[in-house]
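In the laboratory, one determines a bound structure by crystallizing the protein with its ligand and collecting diffraction data. In a computational setting the workflow is compressed into a single prediction: the sequence and the ligand go in, and a structural description comes out. We illustrate the idea with molybdenum atom.
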Amino acid sequence: MGTTFRGIWELYDDDPEAADAKIWGRRSEPISRRGFLAGSGRAALAAALGGSIAFSEWMPGGVIPAAFAATHKSFKIPGKEPGLVVLNDRPLNAETPAHLLDDDVTPASRLFVRNNGLPPEAIDVASWTLRIEGEATREQKEFSIARLKKEFRHHTYRLQLECAGNGRSEFVPPARGNQWTTGAVGCPEWTGVRLRELLEASGVTSEAVYVAYYGADRHISGEPGKIPISRGVPIAKALQDETLVAWAMNGADIPLLHGHPLRLVCGGFPGSTSGKWLRRIVVRDRVHDGPKMGGKSYRVPCRPVAPGSEVSDADMCIIDSMPVKSLITFPKSGLVHPIGEPLALRGHAWAGERAVARVDVSTDYGKTWQRSKLAKPPNRLAWQRWQAEVRFPSQGYYEVWVRATDSAGREQPMIVPGWNPKGYLNNATHRISARVMK
Ligand SMILES: Nc1nc2c(c(=O)[nH]1)N[C@H]1C(S)=C(S)[C@@H](COP(=O)(O)O)O[C@H]1N2
Ligand SMILES: [Mo]
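The predicted complex, in structure-token form:
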């Protein structure tokens, strides 16, 4: 069985088009991908899965069964559980398999890591300062962490953090960069002060357009003075109650990998706006122009383009809110379950700046959907718990699919949405596999 699984991956790594033709009995043009599985392919696949595929008449062609979509690499990072998957080790980037994201509040040991450069070493909390300056402030201010804690009210919120490149691995043609699958997301609980109050204390003016961060990490090239990343958010986002300058995560000091001793947290926006190792905040009278604000970075075509197109920088727009998305965090993909017995499912759903309105699950490749029980978020910008119960009518291979809809009525797409040069914003539905036995 192991060799069969590896064989399929190797096939797809080599030449996905040829692999599709081999397994599905035809070429994978975008249209035929939405067609149905050919007879001979179905039999071959069923054999590889060790049984019949229930509802196979509804299984779209070109879909690699979730049973094969296992993660293959993992190694140990300090402070992390061994189950995290390392995508790159310099700079360090690691994601969390869906079944390790089951907690309502993501523990530090399970939160993904996304570094653009090298984290600072030897941090002295007592001498750390945060400077606030920029064209749209009346005076420059500098705060020690002790002063921040003493002079401003403390607030605690659960805020979801998702890398804009989460899901990148599914784009065709592929986008360069960390090949995130579904695990560049988490929802820890953050404690700090409101950015708004710091801006008010610095005399923010009506000229303010953007608020951006600078951190203490170093560029991967080692060149002194070269900045790995400096991004920002529109002033309206900076002024929201939930936008924090935080020193604590889950009731403890923020771990070094996640921005100790101070970080910005802008829940619902791309993770890249939540600056780690925060040293400086600039209040700009224009859209911020720091490294990774322009070109193709964290920007997508303003209007949809054909996959693989050249897009000029002038036609790219900055990502603001992340789109609606969901995960099945229990059970783990690949489960074995008895016929007719209820199976309890659960997970989380989130929708960037919006709330999630409903979550549906399907066991027949989207032919029919069942409404799940959806909890209210504990606060704005936190992910929401969903729960459902399903039964399987016959023996065989099944998939469970989950689909969330946001408060504006936008549904997650069933297939990878709008291609873009850097592979951002893939919010396609998550699925797990189940084998149903007597
Ligand atoms: N200073 C600094 N802040 C940063 C980054 C970075 O490389 N340097 N990476 C950003 C990106 S792209 C993401 S997705 C989040 C990841 O946060 P985490 O590593 O705590 O999960 O941090 C953001 N903040
Ligand atoms: Mo990111």
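The longest helix spans residues 2-14. Keep in mind that any predicted model is a hypothesis to be tested, not a measurement.
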